[in-house]
Write a structure and sequence with these properties.
InterPro entries: 4-PPantetheinyl_Trfase_dom (IPR008278), 4-PPantetheinyl_Trfase_dom_sf (IPR037143), P-Pant_transferase_sf (IPR050559). With 224 residues, the chain is α+β, with helices and mostly antiparallel strands. Helices cover 32% and strands 27% of the residues. Strand 9 and strand 10 form a beta hairpin. The chain binds coenzyme A.
Amino acid sequence: MADDPSDAPAVHLDLVDAPGRGPGPERDRELLGPDERARADRMPPSVREVWIRSRALLRTTVAPYLGCAAPEVRLARDGRGRPVLPDAPAVHVSLAHTAGCCAVAVSTAGPVGVDVERVRPLSLPDGLARRLLTPGELAEWDGVEAAERTRWLLRRWTWKEALLKAEGTGLRGGLHSFDLGWTPAGPWVRSARHRSRRWWVAEVPAGPLHVAAVARDRGMRTAS
Ligand SMILES: CC(C)(COP(=O)(O)OP(=O)(O)OC[C@H]1O[C@@H](n2cnc3c(N)ncnc32)[C@H](O)[C@@H]1OP(=O)(O)O)[C@@H](O)C(=O)NCCC(=O)NCCS
């Protein structure tokens, strides 16, 4: 899906379920600020460890870009919820978490978005597909083999959510507001809102239990 791999964002994926991965929740927690620790303490245990890992991973990943130690990385959100680094506005970050896995993307070349989903049974895949997909994408969905449908839909979900995170809108940007597909020549994004921009979208290898994708806004299209 990438039309220029040379400016691919760095993506760090951590499978939290995997034995021996990461330094462990207590060491990770030490990297967090007081507000983040308080937020973590309010979370159900089922999501807390992955969330703490995502913050620790983000801090350790971006610390070299800032030239500071991981606990000193200041992290904030913009008005729409996108994570930002107030001390390094040219370093763009994105993060995602799901059961057993978190992902962090870093880009110095433009806004970036990452998403990861656990591959899990979907109780009403057709209903989810209608919620997620445009009419054009639904036509594609109709042709997907029954055995492939769950993974297909979760993959498509990650592409779309990664793009909406790169855009900075999150889901408010509208999952139905664009068609997304790819050709060997590069990503194919069709919508009035996105037409003027160039997008880079790629899948991230995430093992058998997860699917993940990263997207980057490559700036305005130039007339050709
Ligand atoms: C941002 C959003 C796409 C996250 O999706 P999710 O599957 O629940 O969670 P993920 O783990 O994939 O991603 C969560 C991370 O996305 C990031 N994020 C939040 N808003 C963002 C935005 N506008 N742009 C980019 N990234 C964003 C945050 O870092 C968040 O993690 P954090 O809370 O630990 O900081 C989604 O929750 C959203 O759009 N929320 C905004 C509220 C909204 O629109 N609600 C109406 C739904 S129709």
